Amino acid sequence: MAVRRLDPFDLSAPAHEGGGVTTPLSTGRRGFAGVIAEVKPGEAAGGLADVEIERRLIEMGLVEGAPVEIVHEGLFGRDPIAVRLTDRVVALRRREARAVLVRAGSPR
């Protein structure tokens, strides 16, 4: 399996441009890639308050415009997921990943 490197300086599909359909990161499967369009927690994102979920996701590096790719899924129920960002890999529960809206497609 070939490893793709994510380019943090690639502006070919910036999240702030109009157009493009966004999808929650939680619906992706292994190999799903795109650019984060928005972090928008709702009550389904977890047991914490919306602002707390948003703060934690941003602290992990899940910010608008960041390239993202799902690199691993848990064995049971495909949960949690491992998500590759520009400079790190983080683990998220799918209920937390629902708050991250991604513009699908190759981040390069």
First and last CA, distance: 18 Å
Biggest sheet record: 6 strands, antiparallel
Reading off the top of the CATH hierarchy, the class is best stated as Mainly Beta
- Helix-strand topology string: EEHEEEHE
Strand fraction equals: 25-35%
CATH topology: SH3 type barrels
Number of strands: 6
The outline comes out as globular
Helix and strand composition category: alpha+beta
Chain-averaged pLDDT: 80
Q: State the helix count.
A: 2
Key traits:
six-stranded antiparallel beta sheet; SH3 type barrels; about 110 residues; disordered N terminus; globular; alpha+beta; 2 helices
Describe, in plain words, how this protein is organized in 3D.
The protein has 108 residues and is of the alpha+beta class. It has a single domain, classed as SH3 type barrels. It is 13% helix and 28% strand. It has helices spanning 50-59, 94-97, and strands at residues 22-24, 33-39, 67-73, 81-84, 89-92, 100-104. The protein has a six-stranded antiparallel sheet. The chain is globular.
Q: Quick summary of this structure?
A:
13% of the residues lie in helices and 28% in strands. With 108 residues, the protein is α+β, with helices and mostly antiparallel strands. The chain has one domain: Ferrous iron transport protein A (FeoA) (SH3 type barrels, Roll).
